[in-house]
Design a protein that fits this description.
Elements lengths: L5 H9 L1 H5 L3 H12 L4 H10 L9 H13 L10 H11 L2 H9 L8 H53 L1
């Protein structure tokens, strides 16, 4: 971190005694106060709330991203606990995954961790089916291209023969 943010490293070096006496929460508050813009909480909250799972992104990757964004807001009024995070995640998952989750009644699971695990398992199946369908489509396209190439070669050969005669 220090190599990437030298101004923070210099600040810590220059205030080492004071910083070493702080609790972790106080240290984080100190860093936020001294190095982040006044509206950082609003920006981070908006980023977290607008974070969507795209169709080609796994649920695990989406979950990691949204949880990380929420952790940045820890010890602020914008931090969300499990019940609110569950609502936010549920509102931002991929539509296809959402349909599978409704069909499998995943919403009946009350434990947050088990709910996430159930969504992750469903999503792995969804992603596997998606990849298989993409491969089948690619194979079908290759087959058609190969057939078209064979037909074109056959047509060119006949045209060439009749031109020579």
């Amino acid at each position: 971190m220090c190599g990437r943010y030298p101004n923070i490293a210099y600040h810590i070096d220059n205030n080492e005694e004071e910083i070493l006496e702080m609790t972790f929460e106080d240290f984080i508050a100190h860093i936020r106060k001294n190095f982040l813009q006044d509206n950082w909480v609003r920006k981070a909250r908006r980023d977290r709330n607008n974070f969507k799972q795209l169709p080609d992104v796994s649920f695990q990757e989406f979950l990691t991203g949204i949880m990380h964004r929420n952790l940045l807001l820890q010890n602020t009024s914008a931090f969300l606990y499990e019940a609110s995070m569950r609502d936010l995640i549920d509102n931002n998952i991929d539509e296809d995954l959402n349909a599978h989750a409704e069909k499998e009644r995943v919403q009946d699971e009350v434990d947050f961790k088990k709910w996430c695990e159930a969504l992750n398992a469903l999503d792995r199946k969804r992603m596997h089916k998606r990849k298989r369908a993409e491969k089948e489509a690619e194979d079908a396209i290759r087959k058609r291209q190969k057939q078209a190439l064979t037909v074109n070669r056959g047509g060119n050969t006949k045209t060439s023969s009749s031109t020579i005669l």
